[in-house]
Specification:
26% helix, 9 helices, alpha+beta, OB fold (Dihydrolipoamide Acetyltransferase, E2P), elongated
Length: 394
């Protein structure tokens, strides 16, 4: 079983806390993405799991085994690095086979010393252990099978310098596949690829996961990769897991200001407001608008009159309304930037108080820079956050 668990794991570098008491589980066969800005601790957490860094405190589990103090070679995980880490003097075949041959020699020596008989294991049913550990025929089967999965069969005799960036990354993935590990650990494997190749390789990794069903933890700073690849996402910041859930739930229901601002492109609009009373209504007001408080939190906000909060609204829920619309539940803006993207148009707009709002509109919307518009916000998609704690209230 490829279940993975972090149990109150802490990693410090001197006085610097890189991973701060994180606990979560990854189910057998799940694809979990660790996402966050540079320096948030995601790679440190992955390296601790791989055994490349010592854990300061806490426990790590892979399958039914605690692996906290276990050497990396015994953890049965395969890591894919950002820089490919291919041997330039070896062809593709030998790069794929290298780890198996190395383990063959190590296991054969250990089996000779202990007198262990060979045993059958692995997806390919090869003999592992004793003098038959990773026989060359078994290595060949694994290498050719991995090459076939990745579409690299015709490149087995080429060296890394003769391959494109995408092909090199596939070799790095293949080297992980041939080991048949309990888990794949991927540390920003697409960072060195151009945009088109990233999208293509991203799809290949997903197809590979659907085929092999191996537990995978994938580290990235790219929230678009996280949203499109993960069964679940764990959002990290300053060494702490901010939220862990499915991509859509994190997008629709961020539990903190950080998650709301980090997930989504463009990011969620975040506007300072004050809770006020207007007649018998509770309103969310700033210098540009006064929105009636959503019914589902009105009672809670009755106790927060005068309190400053942060209002959040995704760009797709900013809508143009007629400039003649009455009331105060809309915002008069000036268009600062227009970004036509083919299927949609992004408009960056500012209100009277220089508060910027981004809207996502139909491509037929013909507004130009300098135009004056009136925009409103869809009430069912408003978010409220406490700026002091960063926690979501709505």
């Amino acid at each position: 079983m490829g279940r993975i668990a972090f149990d109150h794991v802490v990693k410090k570098y001197g006085e610097v806390v890189a991973v701060d008491d994180i606990s979560f589980e990854v189910a057998d066969g799940e694809f979990l993405v660790l996402v966050g800005p540079s320096g948030c601790g995601k790679t440190s957490a992955l390296r601790c799991l791989a055994g490349l860094e010592e854990v300061t405190d806490g426990k790590l589990y892979i399958g039914d085994r605690e692996v906290t103090d276990m050497p990396p070679r015994d953890r049965d995980v395969a890591m894919v690095f950002q820089n490919y880490a291919l041997y330039p003097h070896m062809d593709v075949y030998d790069n794929l086979a290298f780890a198996l041959r190395l383990r063959k020699d190590m296991m054969a020596t250990a089996a000779k010393d202990s007198g262990l008989p060979p045993k059958k294991t692995g997806l390919f049913g090869g003999l592992i252990g004793g003098k038959n550990a990773y026989a060359e025929a078994e290595i060949e089967r694994r290498v050719t099978h991995a090459a076939d999965i990745l579409g690299m069969s015709e490149f087995l005799k080429r060296r890394p310098r003769q391959l494109s960036g995408g092909q090199r990354q596939r070799v790095a993935l293949g080297r992980a596949i041939v080991r048949e590990p309990e888990a794949f650990l991927m540390d920003e494997p697409l960072s060195n690829l151009d945009t088109q190749l990233r999208m293509q390789t991203r799809a290949e990794i997903l197809k590979l996961h659907q085929r092999l069903k191996v537990t995978t933890i994938y580290v990235t700073h790219d929230q678009q990769e996280a949203m499109t690849m993960g069964d679940r996402i764990a959002v990290m910041n300053k060494g702490v897991i901010q939220q862990i859930d499915t991509p859509q739930r994190i997008y629709d229901h961020p539990t903190s200001l950080f998650v709301a601002a980090f997930i989504g492109s463009p990011a969620m609009n975040l506007l300072p407001i004050t809770v006020q009373r207007s007649g018998d209504q509770v309103v969310l007001a700033n210098g540009d608008f006064a929105l009636p408080a959503p019914a589902r939190v009105r009672m809670r906000l009755e106790e927060a009159i005068g309190k400053e909060l942060t209002l959040g609204i995704r760009p797709e829920y900013v809508m143009a309304v007629p400039s003649s619309a009455g009331g105060t539940d809309h915002m008069d803006v000036v268009v600062d930037v227009v970004e036509p993207l083919g299927a949609e148009v992004l408009m960056y707009m500012s209100g009277a108080g220089a508060k910027q709002v981004v809207g996502r509109f139909d491509p037929n919307h013909r507004a130009r820079v300098g135009d004056r518009l009136t925009v409103g916000f869809e009430q069912d998609h408003l978010h409220l956050f406490d700026p002091e704690t960063g926690n979501a209230l709505l």
